[in-house]
Please model this.
Amino acid sequence: MKKNQKALIRHNLIYEKLNAGETVNVKALAKEFGVGERTIQKDLNERLCDIYDIEPLGEGNYRLVKHHRFKGAADEEESIAISLMKELQHSAIPELNSYIDAALPTASNYDEIFKFGMHFEAIEDVEAFKVLIKAIKWKVGVEFVYTKADGSSKTVLADPYRLANFQNYWYLIAYDPSAEILKTYYLKNITKLQMLYENFTADAKIEEDLNKVCNGMDSVWWNGERQQCLLKVTGIARYYIERDVPEMMEIVETQEEYLLVRIFYHNEIELFSYVKSWIPHIRIVDNDTLMEKLSGELCWFLDEKL
Model:
C-alpha cells in the first residue's frame, strides 16, 4: 500500500476514535499504527485540526471539542442550511443519528423546525455501510458475497462508486471489472463485505456511464433499459394522476371520458403493481399479451380467495 493511502486510512481511523467520544493519546496511536510520535503529532496538528475542532489536553492527549462544528462562518443562512441537512439525514438514515449529531454543528434555533416525511429502508448493517463509504472515498475495491432474488449467491469483486437510494431502497452502484460494466447491488443482499485496499482508477467512460446510471435509475427494477405501454385511466385514478403525474409516466391524450397515459417500466412486476393499485379505473390498451397475463393473475387471485 502506498504511503499516502496508509496516511489517509490512519487519519480516518483517528477521527473515528475522536468522533466516538474517545480521548486519544499520541504515544498510544503511534504504537497502534506503527509510526513515530512525530507523525501522529503532524496528523493531529496539521491535518485533522484543519478540518475538525480538536483540542489538546496536555501530555499528548487530544479530544473533539464538545458540540464541535465544521470550520467556517456561523451566519443565519448557514445555520438554517445545517439544520435542514441534519433533519434530512435523520429522516433518511435514523440508524446514524448519533454520528450525524456529532458531525454537524448544533443550531438550536432551527433544529426543531424542519421535518421530512421520509421513510427509507432501514440500514441493518451500519458497519458494512460505513465500510462502503470508506471504499468509495478512498477508491479501493471491495469483495462480498451477493445473494440474488432466486436465492443463489456468488462472490463479487467490484469497484464501488455510489450508494444510492431509489424508492426507499438502498443500492451499491459498482463497476464489475470482469464484465466491464456498471452494476447495481441491493444492499441487504450483500454479506461478508471487505475492502481489498487495492486502488482503482476510474476513466472518463466509466464516469460518463455512472452519470447515466444515476440519472436514469428511476426504479427499484432498474436494468438499464426501459419499456413502455399505454394506459387508459378513468374515475378517481385520473384525478390523482392528473394532480401529480408520476415520474415514470407522461400524459399522451386528454378526453372528457378518460385519460391516455404512457408508463415507463423496467419489469412487468412494476407495471402490474401500479395497474392493480387502481383497478377498475385503469387498463392496458396497447399490449394484449400483457393485458391477458394481468387478467390471468387477477383470475387466479379471485379463485384462490373463493
